[in-house]
């Protein structure tokens, strides 16, 4: 598949202009340097042609991969909505919210393990999912933490709209400097989580850390001693190299192992205690 933009009229015009310029430069080179100048311009043309050919091939492969990913996400959305059957459409799937494949994975884990205490770092679509699943499981308490005060209220409003207010708490926690092993990170105010004594499922999907600065690291270090015997940790966005390395190192140090690297858009990792 050739990317659509290469067949637009403007690209055809650019190619014609380049051809005219090349012809003019070749004529000048031939008059000044003779046959050697002509050969040099032929070599330049071959190089440019090969470069454009490789670029087209790479773009075609990338477009095919993107199309495949989009198709898979559509299948996940259809399967997800069919299984969850929400009363109204959710916030959104993707971008800053959990991706459709991650949402499907999260819902599967909630249904399979039926955790009693669920802590989400980052609220929104995932909170609505866990609310529905706790309602379906007939058990479970959800505590979602968020550093955006307006988004926190939006999540509360949506939970109310879905009829999911019971046993779900969305807490606002501003980001504050937190020191771990001599390094400072911007993380949720630990005071907001002081009363949480036991966690059966921990979803680490916040705070935002697109620069991979380590701002999610404190979640693992500060909450490790509150994880129950059969706790599950879901670490999202481990397509970020430093964050992925931290998750693996923390798991090895604290007796957790990666159950299976989930091959989704953001490389979500599932950690369970070693048997």
List the domain count as a whole number: 2
Low-confidence stretches: 1-6
Kindly state the percentage of residues in helix.
Answer: 40-55%
* CATH level-3 fold name of the largest domain: Rossmann fold
Computed over alpha carbons, the radius of gyration is: 26 Å
Specify the CATH homologous superfamily of the largest domain: Vaccinia Virus protein VP39
SSE run: HHHEHEHEEEEHEHEE
Q: Give the class-level CATH name of the largest domain.
A: Alpha Beta
The structure class reads alpha/beta
Q: How many helices?
A: 7
The geometry reads as elongated
Named at the architecture level, the CATH assignment of the largest domain is 3-Layer(aba) Sandwich
Provide mean pLDDT, rounded. Answer: 85
> How many strand units?
9
The major β-sheet equals: 7 strands, mixed
Strand content: 15-25%
Beginning-to-end CA distance, first to last residue: 48 Å
As laid out across the biggest beta sheet, the strand order is 3-2-1-6-7-9-8
Quickly describe the structure:
The protein is α/β, with parallel strands linked by helices. It has helices at 9-33, 35-84, 100-113, 125-137, 149-161, 217-223, 241-253; strands at residues 117-121, 141-146, 168-172, 175-180, 183-188, 199-204, 227-235, 256-261, 269-273. The chain has seven helices and nine strands.
Descriptive report:
The protein is 49% helix and 20% strand. By secondary structure, the chain is α/β, with parallel strands linked by helices. The protein folds into 2 domains: 76 residues, no CATH class; 188 residues, Vaccinia Virus protein VP39 (Rossmann fold), CATH 3.40.50.150. β1, α4 and β2 form a beta-alpha-beta unit. The longest helix has 50 residues.
């Amino acid at each position: 598949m050739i990317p659509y933009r290469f067949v637009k009229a403007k690209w055809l015009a650019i190619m014609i202009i380049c051809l005219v310029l090349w012809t003019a430069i070749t004529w000048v080179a031939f008059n000044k340097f003779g046959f050697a100048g002509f050969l040099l311009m032929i070599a330049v043309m071959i190089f440019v042609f090969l470069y454009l050919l490789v670029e087209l091939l790479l773009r075609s492969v990338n477009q095919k991969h993107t199309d495949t990913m989009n198709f898979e996400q559509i299948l996940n959305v259809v399967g997800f909505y069919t299984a969850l059957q929400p009363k109204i459409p959710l916030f959104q799937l993707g971008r800053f919210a959990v991706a459709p494949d991650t949402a499907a994975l999260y819902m599967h884990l909630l249904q399979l393990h039926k955790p009693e205490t669920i802590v989400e770092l980052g609220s929104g679509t995932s909170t609505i999912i866990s609310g529905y699943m706790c309602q379906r499981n007939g058990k479970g308490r959800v505590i979602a933490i968020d550093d955006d005060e307006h988004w926190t209220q939006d999540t509360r409003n949506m939970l109310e709209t879905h009829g999911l207010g019971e046993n779900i708490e969305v807490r606002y926690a501003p980001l504050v400097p937190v020191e771990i092993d001599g390094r400072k990170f911007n993380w949720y105010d630990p005071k907001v989580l002081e009363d949480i004594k036991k966690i059966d499922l921990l979803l680490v999907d916040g705070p935002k850390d697109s620069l991979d600065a380590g701002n999610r690291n404190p979640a693992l270090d500060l909450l490790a001693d509150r994880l129950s015997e059969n706790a599950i940790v879901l670490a999202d966005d481990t397509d970020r190299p430093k964050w992925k390395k931290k998750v693996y190192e923390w798991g090895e140090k604290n007796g957790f192992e990666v159950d299976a690297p989930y091959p989704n858009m953001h490389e979500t990792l599932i950690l369970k205690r070693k048997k």
